[in-house]
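Run Mucoidy inhibitor A through structure prediction, thanks.
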Amino acid sequence: MADETIHKQEFNLRNVETKSVTLYPTRAQVVRDIKNITLRPGSNQITIYGLTPTADENSIKVDGKGSATITDITVELIPNSESFHEVYQSDSEDDDVDDSNEDETDPDNDRFNALVKKRRDIDEDLAKANEETNVGATQMSILTSFAESIKEGRPDDLSAFISTHRLERKRAYELVFESDKRVKALEKQRDSSKREVSKFIKTIKKARLQAAKLKERKQRAREERDAGKRRSTEERNKFWPRKVYRVVVSLDTNSSPTPASSRRGSIDTVGKPVSDEPFAGESSISLSVSYITSCAAWTPRYDLSLNTTNNTGLITYRAELGNTTSETWKDTKVILSTSQTASQGLGEPIPSMVPWHIKLDKKTKSNNDTTIGAVLSHHERTYKTTASPSSNQADVSRSMLFGFWPEPASPQPQGFKVSGQARQKAAPTRAAPTRAAPTMVAPTMAAAHMAAAQTAAMQLQAQRQQQAGQQVQQQQMAQLQQSGGAIFDSAMGESEEAEETGDSFAFWDAGTDTMAPSLPALATPESTWSESGLTATYDLPGLRTIAPSHTTRRQKIASIHLKNVNLSYLMVPKLRAAAFLKARIYNTSSVTLLRGPCGLTLDGSFLGNTTLPRCSAGDFFRLNLGVDPSVSVVYSKPAVKRTQTGVLQREGSGIYTRTCTITNTNVSRVIEGMVIDQIPVSEDQRLRVEILRPTGLSHEGDTRAAGAGLPGVGKELDKWGKATARLKNDGEIWWDISIEPGRGAQLVLEYETKFPTTDVVVEV
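Sure, done. The structure for Mucoidy inhibitor A is below.
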């Protein structure tokens, strides 16, 4: 069929609904729905663009509903044709509107000019008034001088002169009088104007100071906003993919239905809906795309609060969700699954034994060990060094393909092109029918179930395996954090590395006094969970949006109340005079606790972070709680007494005494635990070592009551508690102790060595 007869449609994954996201410990499964797709009669082609490059192309699956047949599915990894600037448009222009017009017009300047003009007018009027006063005074002086000048000769018309003099003097006086009144009034106006101008200047200075502060605050806010935009752009830049997956689905609305798989290269019929409407012209279908992606996972995290007064506790089980893919999953249902922690190493070969042949060889100086051939076989040594879980070959090739191609100088999409040699290397990887599965959590995690064993040897072995599993998990989380820089690149150039958020942990107890007692505690929704075989799933409440980020999100899964916490002490005073508190905790819930970091709070005080081992439902685990300062441990220096015995065969002897004093300063709690000490073990028949105190310990497994109350501590020494000594292998002596509140105990170890006087006792 010609290409022009194929009806083509393209859907960007950014605009496609996310139905659900199932997070596993090392990866995630994403299901997206495309609804109401209109198909024309004949052949149709649906292109789904923008799948994250971290997806496993062999896991991409397309299903659907409607009257059409899926004839072909192709998956291709192509350069990202989208523009970073077009997808994330900057709105900085809208934020800086009218910032440049703030100081163009200042209404205070007009008012100030008016006040200055008013002051100038008053000064001019005052000068005129003073001049009129001076004129009037001068006129009066002239009239007085003229009147005095006529004393020598009498005027012809004296009455007329007197009348004229009176009239002119009156006019001059009135001029002076009115001018003085006006001067005083103008001086008051001038003083008032001075005060008004001074007050206005102070107001202007204050207003301008406030305006400067406001402008500075706006500038800081603008800088913070710009910095936030830069951080947001840099964060988006880190998850901008160079390459994306494109899925092309070919459908036919005329072909007969043929049930088959919906994977690539197969023919599948999209299931019909419930309604049986007749086909006429265009039809509508819906598609569902599911795929597995790395760089998205969840890890457990716990808050453990213990109360030593009533031996109870509370475990708050949380999940940390991480997404460093290129996709944002909006308003989706989030499910957590533990399947990859129960069954791991998919695809790894099962070890098989081969015959182990040994023979005799001549003894030489280079092989003094006569039994070396019967200790480890060559096959065992080779298998342990070569068959360890290796890193994911597929992930390495993908990181080389997507993460380290240099950007060209020009901003054209050619920067995403791959060299011919690299393309030839990468082509077999994409064309291969199967791909090596990404490395999951190491198989040593499965051995963590041995932690529930009763014997100390099995527990020690499980602890070592758990430590190895923790290192593998930390490497995987580091790979998850670094994968963003390996697979994604920016269309804007090099970006800074992600800031470390730190793993500092702060435990908050809802029962502390930090909250007002009248207010109820904030409620946190818990997850619903279900278990099937070795896998447990947790459904997070509501819909959530998970955007790509190096910052993890926390979600509460469950709260587990511990009703019976067994607290005990372990003391090895010979090496350190301290009482180490240990807790044996039973998982009374039906939830399996995975291995993960835990914030520990003891009696309301936060102690720090520890690691919670894997613990199945109904099983128990142990935690070290550090040194308890309320238990005093004093270990004395050795006291030695040397003697010689015998007549014909003289024999040397040494009696050694070590004393351990333990005081329980708690006033309301009995302490129970174990004290470990040792005596030397002889490797020579002529050197004999005997235990004098505690008495009766001569063979391994012997048990005797031992210990005594401290004098002066309590009036009744017989009620201090109890202690039982046991002789273990390799010369160790274990005391099982129980000390009452406020009492003390004294444990004495005394042993004797006997040897020929011609020899000395030395350590091997």
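The chain has a mean pLDDT of 75.
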